[in-house]
Structures are given as structure tokens and as C-alpha cells.
Write a structure and sequence with these properties.
It is a single chain. The protein has 2 domains: 4-211, Orthogonal Bundle (Endonuclease III, domain 1); 228-343, Alpha-Beta Complex (Nucleoside Triphosphate Pyrophosphohydrolase). Helix content is 43%, strand content 13%. It is built from 15 helices and 8 strands. The chain has helices spanning 4-15, 28-37, 43-56, 60-64, 68-75, 82-97, 106-110, 117-128, 137-147, 156-168, 175-189, 207-211, 268-276, 322-325, 332-343, and strands at residues 228-238, 241-246, 257-258, 261-262, 280-285, 289-292, 297-307, 317-320. Strand 6 and strand 7 (297-307) form a beta hairpin. Helix 8 (117-128) crosses helix 11 and helix 9 crosses helix 11. The longest helix has 16 residues, at 82-97. It is elongated.
Length: 354
């Protein structure tokens, strides 16, 4: 039987993915960008965002020269926005420290903001042919099944065991094909449910296949109930323009434009008068919606308020027509509300409902 890596490489060259937009050349910028976008996000979702992003920022210099707002606007809807902020910061750092030339070792790449050990190894291997192991979610699944490693891969002890196993399997040559092959195996054959074991090039010595444990490995994350949070979002309209406010750089939706928020039991008219010095003359409750985060679920109660005309300027805020607001960097649930607002006219009854 051929070595594990030889079988993976041969399979990848014949059956793996070769037509993804970041595979057209070995440009480290495009590979790095794709790896960041693919963190916590499926390939099918990433492709469109990637193509729009590189059309606007075709290289490191363009990204480093952009404003954070422009970067976040193109990232809007992809989620995990710290990735976009770190991406921009890293591009600026490469421009300053490396003269705009992408670093070519896993160690140097791993020192960039937002780049972990596996991402750094993937970029180094795919772009520069460096011999280093990767361990993303797909690869963890392949290795846990093939070696029969029990335990949740998020546990440090299990993760360390997977890293050791990943490093022991590295080939001396064809590292780019091997690295892509490991990703492809997990994405195309060794899937979370209904793995296609009969098409797998490493099934003959796969522990999970031999022992009938493909449905139990890797061990799932221990279940726990997600906390639930509730918030009221205020859609404040003044003569057809919507008030957006910039969120703090750190925290959920950091650096994005969002809607003003209040607690669920807030008197909305009193709140906008006291907080913003604005006068509401009609109010309308909109259908609630929910949004899931990794660590909690957010329940949103949107409320639409028509305001008396005001010329007051609010620092950290901007007034935009709903259609124009859709060009800003908005969190996904806020974008949904604004899109519905842009489509709906007229929005208020003639008489006040406060």
C-alpha cells in the first residue's frame, strides 16, 4: 500500500478541486484572503464575496490603501467581522514591514493579525511550498476518522494529538497538492454526514471505516444551551433618511454601522428624546427576528419611528436614505431590516400612533 500522503496527492490531482477562484495561480495574497474568508464559512458562500473583494482590492497595496469602512462594506453579510478588520490591519503591516511583499514562512505569516497556526501553514504550503501541516475543521475530521482518535477536537489534548498525527503524515514533496488534497477530502468525501468512503483513497487503512465509526468520529462538541439575549432596534426616519450609528471597534459587529439599540421595555419616544434630542411623532412595531452567534442567540424587536424634522448633527452617526444605507457595512440582520425598509412605502399612517 502506498503511503498515506501519496494516495492523497494522487487523488487530489485527479479528483480534487482545481477551479476555485483563488486557485488560478499561487498568489499568496489571494490564497491568504481565501483562507481568512473560509474560516467558519462554507466555500459556496465565500466564492461570490471573494470575487467582489478582489475586484475592488486586487492586491495587497490596494487593500492596505483602503479605509476600514470600505473593507467592512465589502465584507458585510459574511459575518465574523473581526476577520475583515484583522485582514486590513495585516495588509497595512505587510506594506510597512515587508515592503508590500507577502512573508513566505509559516512563522512570519502566523504573526499577522487574525492568522492562526493552521491558516499560516495553509498559506505557506499552498503559496510557497513550505512543508508544514494544516489542521482546519475538514482535516480534523479526516484525521480523527483515519487514525481513530476519540474525543472532541476542540479539547486541547485531542487537538495536540491531531497536530502530531498531521505532522507525521507530511510528504517530502508535492506539499501544495497534499495540503489541498486534505482540504478536499474533508469537503468532498469525508463529510460530516454521509461520507463517501468507497471513493476515499485512504479507506483501506481508515480506523473509523474498518470499525464502523464514521458516524461517531470525530466526537461532537459537548452540547450546551446557548444564552439568549433580547434587544430593541430603532429605525429612526427623518424625511426619508435613516439614522445609523458606528459601533465600537471591539465587540460584536465591531466597526460596523448599525441601528440604535435600547432595552426591550424602553419607551421609545422617551429614549430617542433623551438619548439623541429627537422628537418622534409616530411609531410602528415591525415583525421580530432572531440572529445566531457562536455563543448566544439574539432576539431583535425592531421599532420604526418617524421623527419631527431636525438638523441636529450627532457625532458617530450618519443619516442615509435606506437604499443608500445598503452600501454601508451593515450586520446581516440590520441589512435585512434596512432592505425591507427600502422596499416599503409609505411606512407610516397619516395619524400619530404614539
Amino acid at each position: 500500500m502506498k503511503p498515506f500522503a501519496d494516495r492523497v496527492v494522487a487523488w487530489q490531482r485527479q479528483h480534487g478541486r482545481h477551479d476555485l477562484p483563488w486557485q488560478r495561480n499561487r498568489d499568496p495574497y489571494r490564497i491568504w484572503l481565501s483562507e481568512i474568508m473560509l474560516q467558519q464559512t462554507q466555500v459556496a458562500t465565500v466564492v461570490g464575496y471573494f470575487e467582489r473583494f478582489v475586484a475592488r482590492f486586487p492586491d495587497l497595496a490596494a487593500l492596505a490603501g483602503a479605509s476600514e469602512d470600505d473593507v467592512l462594506a465589502l465584507w458585510s453579510g459574511l459575518g465574523y467581522y473581526s476577520r475583515a478588520r484583522n485582514l486590513h490591519t495585516a495588509a497595512c503591516r505587510i506594506a510597512e514591514r515587508y515592503g508590500g511583499h507577502f512573508p513566505d514562512t509559516a512563522e512570519a505569516i502566523g504573526a499577522l493579525p487574525g492568522v492562526g497556526r493552521s491558516t499560516a501553514a495553509a498559506v505557506a504550503a499552498l503559496a510557497f511550498g513550505r512543508r508544514c501541516a494544516i489542521l482546519d475543521g475538514n482535516v480534523k475530521r479526516v484525521l480523527a476518522r483515519h487514525a481513530g482518535i476519540n474525543g472532541w477536537p476542540g479539547d486541547r489534548r485531542i487537538e495536540d494529538a491531531l497536530w502530531r498525527h498531521a505532522e507525521s503524515l507530511l510528504p517530502e514533496q508535492a506539499i501544495a497538492s497534499y495540503t489541498q488534497g486534505m482540504m478536499d477530502l474533508g469537503a468532498l468525501l469525508c463529510t460530516r454526514t454521509r461520507p463517501d468512503c468507497m471513493a476515499c483513497p485512504v479507506r483501506r487503512d481508515c480506523n473509523a471505516h474498518a470499525t464502523g465509526r464514521t458516524h461517531t468520529l470525530p466526537t461532537p462538541r459537548p452540547k450546551k444551551n446557548l444564552p439568549e439575549r433580547h434587544v430593541r432596534m430603532l429605525l429612526l426616519l427623518d424625511r426619508g433618511e435613516l439614522l445609523l450609528e458606528k459601533r465600537p471597534a471591539k465587540g460584536i459587529w465591531g466597526g460596523l454601522w448599525s441601528l440604535p439599540e435600547a432595552s426591550e421595555d424602553t419607551d421609545c419616544a422617551d429614549h430617542v428624546r433623551e438619548r439623541y434630542g429627537l422628537v418622534a411623532h409616530s411609531l410602528r412595531e415591525l415583525p421580530p427576528l432572531s440572529h445566531g452567534f457562536t455563543h448566544f442567540r439574539l432576539h431583535i424587536r425592531p421599532t420604526l419611528l418617524a421623527l419631527a424634522p431636525c438638523t441636529k448633527s450627532l457625532p458617530g452617526h450618519v443619516w442615509l436614505a435606506p437604499a443608500d444605507a445598503l452600501d454601508a457595512a451593515l450586520p446581516a440582520p440590520v441589512r435585512k431590516l434596512v432592505a425591507e425598509l427600502a422596499r416599503e412605502r409609505p411606512l407610516f399612517p397619516r395619524s400619530p400612533v404614539l
